Amino acid sequence: MNNPHHMNPRSLKSRFTTRFLRALTKIRAQKPISSSSPTEIFRRYRKIKVAADKSMAYSVRSRKTWSRAMLWKLRSRSHRRRPVKTKFRQSVMKNTKTTTTTGEDGVGFGVEASELRELVPGGEAMDLCNLLDETAHYIKCLTTQVQVMKKIADFYSL
Amino acid sequence: MESNPGTTETRSNLTASDGGQVTAFESLQFTDEIHRLILAPTTINASSFTALVELPPPQAVELLHSPDSTKFIAAKPPNVEDFKGSFRFPSNTSLIEPDARFSVFSGEANNGNENRDSPVSKILNSNLEKAVKSEPAETESAQPLVSDPPVEKRRIKRKGRENKVKGSTKKSKTAVNESSEDAEKLPYVHVRARRGQATDSHSLAERARREKINARMKFLQELVPGCNKISGTALVLDEIINHVQSLQRQVEFLSMRLAAVNPRIDFNLDSVFTSESGSLMDSNFPGLVMPVMWPEVQGDGHRQQYQHQWNSDALQQPVWGREVHNNYITPEKSLLTYDSSANSVTLQANQLKMEL
C-alpha cells in the first residue's frame, strides 16, 4: 500500500508523466469505444503523438531553445487557420537568428551538423556550440519520454 | 626550423638589446650552464624541466635563482649524442642558440622568479614566445615543460613581463587574454595560449570555441551509448544523429501503440464507471500494490463485453503491418483486465508513478 519509492515531484519525468496522462485521458474521453477503424486509430495516434510532444515541451517550458521552438511550432500548427501574428513570428525569428554564427567552425563537420539541425526542433538558427547543448538536453528528454510511454503502454496492454 | 624569419629577427634584436643589460660575467656563466644543461642527457620521463635537469625540483629552481652557482656543474656530464636525438635545439644552436638556451628555462624560470624582475628572467620570458614561434616542431620534452599545472600562472606572469619588456604591438593582444582553465564558468572566456600556438585574439577565440565544442562533444559521447569507442567527431555525430532518430521513431511507435490500445480501454466515465467497476487487475498486476479504494470487481458481464470487443478488434489487427503489432497480439488478453473509470485512471497514474 505504501509507496516506498516516491518520485521526485519536480523532476522532468514526473512533470511529463502527469501532463501526458492528463492529455491521454482527454483524448480517450473524446472518442467512443467502438471506433477501432484504422483511420480512427491513426487520428488518435496523431493526437497522442502531439500530446506527447506538447507535454514534454511544456514540462521544459522555455528553458531550452528546442522546447520553445517546439511549442511555437505546435501553436502555429493549431492556429493554422487563423492569421498568424507576423510581428511575433518576426521577433521570434530575429531573436533566434541573431545567435547564428557562420556555419563552419573550421573543424569541418558541416554535413552532420545540418542533419542534426533538422532533427532537433529549432536547430536551424543555432550555432554549433548551442546546438550540441540543445541536442544533449533533447536526447535526455526523449529518453525520458520513451521510458514513460513504454511503461504506460505496457501497463495498459498487460 | 626557421619558419618565421621575421620573428627570429626581432627576437635576435631583442636579445641583443637585452643582452646588454646582463652583466658580462653573469651571462658568461649562465650560458655555460645553460649550454651544459641543453646537452645534458634527457631522461625517459622528461616530463618536466626538473626531470630534464635530472635534479630534484628544489635544486633545479635554486639553480635558476642563482645563475652564478656552480651546482649545475655537479650535474651529470653531458652526453651530446643522447641529446641530439630528442632535442632539436642543438641542431639549431648555431642560429638560435641564445634563444634556445633561454627558452629551456622558460617554465621553471617563471616559477622561480615570480617576484624577481631580473633582466635574465625577463630575457627568458621574452625569448620564450619568440623561440616558441620559431620552432614550430615542438620537442616532446619541451612541450611538457609548459603543460604542468603551475604553468598557467607562469604564463600570466610571463606575458605580463613580456609586455613590460617588449612594449611591442603584441602587448595589447596578449594583455587582453589571460590564462584560465575554466572557460565555462567565467563571465567571459579566458583562454590559455599554449606553447607553440599563436597568441592573437582571433585564434585564441577560435581555440576557446573549439574547446567548448569538444567538451560538449565529450558529454554527448557519454550520453549516447556506444559512442565512447568511436573516435573522430564526424562519426560520433553520425551516431548521435542515429540515436536521436531512433528515439524519435520509438516515440512514434509508442504513441501508435497507445492509440491502438485505446479503443479497448474505454475511458467513458458515464457508461463504465457508474455501471460497473473496472478493477479486473487483481490477477494481472501482481507486482503492484492495489489501492484499497478501488471498488470491487463485479464484472463477469463486464468481461464478456470486453471479450466481444476484443474478438472484433482482433480482426482489425492485421491492418497495421508494423512492429507494434508484435507487442500487442499477445497482450490482447489484457482486455479482460482493463479498468475504465476516471477513478482507475488516477489510480493507474499513481501506480505508474510507483513503477516509474
From TrEMBL, chain A:
The keyword Transcription applies. One of its GO terms (biological process) is regulation of DNA-templated transcription. Keywords: Nucleus, Transcription, Transcription regulation. It is found in: Nucleus. Its main location: nucleus. Residues 11-77 form the IBH1-like N-terminal domain. InterPro entries: bHLH_AtIBH1-like (IPR044549), IBH1-like (IPR044660), IBH1_N (IPR059002). Pfam families: IBH1_N. Signal peptide: none annotated. One of its GO terms (cellular component) is nucleus. PANTHER family: TRANSCRIPTION FACTOR IBH1 (PTHR33124:SF40), TRANSCRIPTION FACTOR IBH1-LIKE 1 (PTHR33124). This is IBH1-like N-terminal domain-containing protein. The lineage of its organism: Eukaryota, Viridiplantae, Streptophyta, Embryophyta, Tracheophyta.
UniProtKB/TrEMBL annotation, chain B:
It holds the Pfam family HLH. It comes from the Eukaryota. Keywords: Nucleus, Transcription, Transcription regulation. One of its GO terms (cellular component) is nucleus. It is found in: Nucleus. Residues 154-173 have a biased composition (Basic residues). Residues 197-247 form the BHLH domain. Residues 131-184 are annotated as: Disordered. InterPro entries: bHLH_dom (IPR011598), bHLH_ZIP_TF (IPR024097), HLH_DNA-bd_sf (IPR036638). The keyword Metal-binding does not apply. One of its GO terms (molecular function) is protein dimerization activity. This is Transcription factor bHLH63. It comes from Hibiscus syriacus (Rose of Sharon).
